[in-house]
Amino acid sequence: MTVPGLPMAAAGADRAPLRFLNERGEPAEGGLRPAPRLLEPEPLLASYRALLLARAFDTEATNLVMQGHLAVYPSSRGQEACQAAAALALRSEDWLFPTYRDTAALAVRGIDPAQALTLLRGSWHCGYDAKRWRTAPQCTPLATQAPHAVGLGLAAKLAGDPVVALCLLGDGATSEGDFHEACNSAAVYQAPTVFLIQNNQYAISVPLRKQTHARALADKAVGYGMPGVQVDGNDIIALLQVLGVACDRARAGDGPTLIEAVTYRIRPHTNADDATRYRDQDEVERWLTWDPVDRMARYLRAVGHLDTQTEQRIDEECERYAKAMRDQLHQEPQVEPAEMFEHVYAVPTRQLLEQRAMVEAEENE
Amino acid sequence: MTTGTATAAAAEDPAAPAAVSLAKALNTALSDAMAADDRVVVFGEDVAELGGVFRITDGLAARFGNQRCFDTPLAEASILGTAIGMAMYGYRPVVEMQFDAFAYPAFEQLVSHLAKMRNRTRGALPMPIVVRVPFGGGIGGVEHHSDSSEAYIAHTPGLHVVTPSTVEDAYWLLSSAIASPDPVVFFEPKRLYWSKAQVSLPVTAGPIGTAAVRREGKDATVIAYGPSVPVALEAAQHGAELGYDLEVVDLRSLVPFDDATVAASVERTSRAIVVHEAAGFAGFGAEIAARVCERCFYSLEAPVLRVTGLDLPYPPPKLEHWFLPSVDRILDAVERAMAA
Question: Which of B82, B113, B259 sits opposite A144 (nearest CB)?
Fold first, then answer.
């Protein structure tokens, strides 16, 4: 399926993913040509700032889990370009459907870090106002949020609103039935839904080759009759270009797009995982040479958009962000047992009222 | 007390309302809800052009257009997941699962998202969704067409579970389910779809969560719901000939559970027999029996007994007669309770 703005709509192992920058941060030969507005200083610096913010968030959250302030943390180190691009590609009226590994994307979207980390802190399930932020709760059961993104897109379409639903998924999620049902339904309904697969090569310990026999995850789009695009997931400019085209298509009523962003999970699945049991350090080192932050920094310096002063200003901003996050999360979160009963139903059942009274009596003992 | 059954006298009265089938009452409830609120949308497999395999959605697409009533791909998880996404955007979807056993692919959406979204988001994303499930046996259906899956659903906090046994209840329970701010799994007793009563629709809708005493009696309370209610009433009729004065309680709502009506009835009669089609082991009847024992233990003259489907996979249609709770089995249980 040919899509204007995306020179290579089909993907496959025999061709490289779409990219703007090579591993040295130089415009890649024969690479993607982004829309001119993406290459203006302001959006470029905004993208760079978002990358650094995502990294600062991830680094701080990784520290916090080591210190025991979070119950668990699935890191997105190395995937910052996907995290930042997912948030930057959306307008405030669009909806984001994140997974448990996409907390950095929530931070870039503007959600308070303590609220974004509530799930992983263990004080409630979703800590941010999902409706206000047009951001669904982070989803843990793989791919089960994908049909929600289809439904929300369909609802917006029926209401006549130019709203996009962006669904984040991992490579493992593409094996789930809900992924298939969602892609198929999105295409049938021509829903304004964009599926962004962050192919970070591993589902906990299971590598991609055990997950699929397809040449590329983007190829799966063919069977649904929607465009599929494989893009370098460590190249934020390429990601913003591809996501931009997909979101424009969605808003214009041209239906869903499947994007596979090829990236790498630098850290283990979570702090509780031991990645040395299933992969070599050499592999990790190779991927570190494609670091999304370094590549962007090199490019920006080369084109003269990132001077020492600007770099320092962004670094300081991120340090302040990390410190504020640390200060917030070092405090023990407050929990209220009565709240367990508050939102099960709009009006609690008699049985719940009895149980709430029991818990309250225990609290007062 | 509303039995919803037409009496001979009413049938002769020219001013009496026309006989309405339970299926038509459901159809009318859907139609009225869609007319009253354009956020109400109906979708599922075969619901638009065909009007559903049981014709419950007949005429809705023609009347409201295919943006309000539409056919979906054959994908139950996607049907329910799509409804969840639409509810996030402010719609009030009513989805049809074509048959009880065909709803299982949607189980994860039901348990992990539909039931939990309001709670997970502290009320930011309520789920005013109705999941209609034609359920139960007695229609000569082949395998996968006669399951009673209410216990799986009722065990999940965050969902409401209701099932009508009369034409009148079918209308107002479905109306109330659609009006509910919370998800309701609406079990429709397939074998009662074509039962009729003289009812003038619309009937006033009340909140869900109340049981009804269908027949008053003083010897024992037979507690039933959905397709088992007419069986229980028939047993009560025969019981009267044998000298047993049976009270019949129709739960209507499994969640929330109307402890007050059930306990008050058992307090009066001192005996309780629980009837449902689903297998008895770990079934919803166990919950009813436990709740009755917790509340009425010192009033009970006999153990609470259960008359349920057998603890085996639903049999082929030529054997279902031996599976289903029957008038005889209910009366046997009554005899045992009375002898205790």
Answer: B113
Clarify whether residues A119 and A238 are in a common domain. Answer: yes
Residues A73-104 as b or e (16 or more Cβ within 10 Å = b): bbbbbbbbbbbbbbbbbbeeebbbbbbbbbbb
Asked whether residue A21 is assigned to any structural domain, the reply reads no
Q: Where are the beta strands (DSSP E) in chain A?
A: 95-97, 165-170, 193-199, 202-203, 206-207, 228-232, 257-262
Q: Map out the domains of chain B as residue ranges.
A: 17-198, 212-339
The answer regarding whether domain B17-198 maps to CATH 3.30.450.20 reads no
Same domain, A197 and A309: yes
Active-site pick, B145, B160, B238, B276: B145
Q: With an 8 Å Cβ cutoff, are A345 and B160 in contact? A: yes
Q: B97 by DSSP, 3-state: which?
A: coil
Residue A246 and residue A176 in one domain = yes
Number of domains in chain A: 2
Distance (Å, rounded) from C-alpha A64 to C-alpha B200? 65
Check whether residue A185 and residue A124 sit in a common domain: yes
Q: Tens place of pLDDT for every residue, chain A, 365 residues?
A: 566 656 544 444 457 899 999 999 999 999 999 999 999 999 999 999 999 999 999 999 999 999 999 999 999 999 999 999 999 999 999 999 999 999 999 999 999 999 999 999 999 999 999 999 999 999 999 999 999 999 999 999 999 999 999 999 999 999 999 999 999 999 999 999 999 999 999 999 999 999 999 999 999 999 999 999 999 999 999 999 999 999 999 999 999 999 999 999 999 999 999 999 999 999 999 999 999 999 999 999 999 999 999 999 999 999 999 999 999 999 999 999 999 999 999 999 999 999 999 999 998 88
Cβ(A50)–Cβ(A81) below 8 Å: no
Task: List CB contacts of A67: < 8 A, sequence separation 6 or more.
Answer: none
The pTM of the full predicted model, rounded to 2 decimals, is 0.96
Range of the domain at A317: 36-334
Q: What's domain B212-339's architecture?
A: 3-Layer(aba) Sandwich (3.40)
ipTM of the complex as predicted: 0.96
The helix/strand/coil state of B229 is helix
| CB-based contact A137 B108, cutoff 8 Å | no
Task: Let me know if residue A308 belongs to a domain.
Answer: yes
Window 153-172 of A, Cβ < 8 Å to B: 153-156, 158-159, 165
Active site residue B145: yes
In a shared domain, residues A211 and A273 = yes
Q: Is residue A84 part of a domain?
A: yes
Chain B contact set for A141 (CB, 8 A): 108, 112
By the CB < 8 Å criterion, does B154 face chain A?
Answer: no
